[in-house]
């Protein structure tokens, strides 16, 4: 899954730590989300979407792996 | 890491754990020289020494997660585990003597199970820590726990086969006592690898 989290966060001039605090997660989680190493749960994805005032699908895009069925 | 780079939080904790491990060995050595305690007590000190050294090794090579969980959560976890483990050490120092000192079976059962009760407090602290962590940390802990559980099962299965084939002879009390420490050790090693996946 790809996302625009870094772009949105940097657009608001927030650090990873500041975003993490607002989302009530760790900075490591924000980093893993931004680098695509961790996909958020649905409630966390909704919290992120609400925080940035954008629909989930504009922040997170699903691209199935080639030949895979994840 | 270059010499000018400050120590990460994990490595600072690793040094503390190393110091505690060495202190345990020093204590065992001093006790052996001046107090002549039983092999059981010496073994206990050395066991905790090995435990601290192992923890130091794991912490040194751990990924520094910056702020993996809020400090409040870590503080609570360390406080709860520290109290339970401190009580465990104290109880284990007199555990055998207490067992030998009483005759009533029900009392012996209570004394025998008392260290397990203290370990339950450690487990409670761990469960509270996992439940209050954020969702990714929870996943790391649960993945590590599941893999460690499978590894311990496979290890004991392999040892069981070797024992059945009469190629090894591990006393059952040793085998049973070591299940939990083996799980903890493999959990630590597994977490080292699992957390790297998310960094």
What can be said about this structure in brief?
The complex is a heterodimer of chains A (70) and B (199). Chain A has 70 residues and is mainly alpha-helical.
Highlighted features:
heterodimer; A: 70 residues; mainly alpha; two-stranded antiparallel ribbon; 5 helices; 2 strands; 54% helix; B: 199 residues; 7 helices; 82% helix
What does this 3D model show about the protein?
The complex is a heterodimer of chains A (70) and B (199). Chain A has 70 residues and is mostly helical. Chain A has 5 helices and 2 strands; from the N terminus they run βαααααβ. Chain A has helices at 5-11, 16-23, 27-34, 42-52, 56-59; strands at residues 2-3, 60-61. Chain A has a two-stranded antiparallel sheet. The mean pLDDT of chain A is 90. Chain B is globular, with a radius of gyration of 19 Å. With 199 residues, chain B is mostly helical. In chain B, helix 1 (9-34) runs antiparallel to helix 2 (39-61). The longest helix of chain B has 31 residues, at 71-101. Chain B has 3 domains: 1-62; 71-132; 134-199. In chain B, 82% of the residues lie in helices and 0% in strands. The interface between A and B is medium-sized, with 15 and 14 residues.
């Amino acid at each position: 899954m790809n996302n625009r989290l870094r772009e949105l966060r940097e657009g608001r001039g927030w650090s990873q730590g500041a975003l993490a605090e607002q989302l009530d997660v760790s900075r490591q989680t924000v980093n893993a989300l931004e680098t695509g190493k961790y996909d958020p749960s649905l409630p966390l994805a909704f919290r992120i979407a609400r925080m940035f005032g954008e629909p989930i699908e504009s922040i997170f895009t699903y691209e199935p792996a080639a030949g895979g069925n994840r | 890491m270059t010499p000018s780079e400050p120590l990460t939080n994990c490595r600072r904790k690793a040094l503390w754990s190393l110091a505690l491990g060495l202190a345990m060995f020093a204590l065992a050595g001093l006790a052996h020289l001046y107090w002549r305690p039983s092999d059981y007590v010496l073994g206990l000190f050395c066991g905790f020494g090995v435990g601290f050294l192992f923890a130091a090794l794991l912490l040194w090579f751990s990924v520094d997660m910056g702020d993996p969980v809020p400090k409040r959560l870590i503080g609570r976890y360390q406080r709860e585990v520290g109290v339970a483990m401190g009580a465990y050490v104290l109880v284990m120092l007199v555990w055998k003597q207490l067992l030998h000192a009483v005759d009533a079976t029900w009392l012996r059962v209570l004394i025998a199970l008392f260290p397990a009760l203290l370990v339950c407090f450690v487990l409670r602290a761990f469960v509270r820590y996992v439940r209050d962590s954020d969702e990714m940390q929870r996943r790391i802990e649960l993945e590590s726990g599941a893999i460690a559980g499978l590894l311990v099962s496979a290890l004991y299965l392999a040892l069981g086969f070797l024992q059945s084939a009469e190629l090894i002879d591990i006393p059952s009390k040793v085998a049973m006592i070591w299940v939990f420490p083996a799980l903890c050790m493999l959990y630590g090693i597994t977490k080292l690898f699992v957390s790297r996946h998310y960094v």
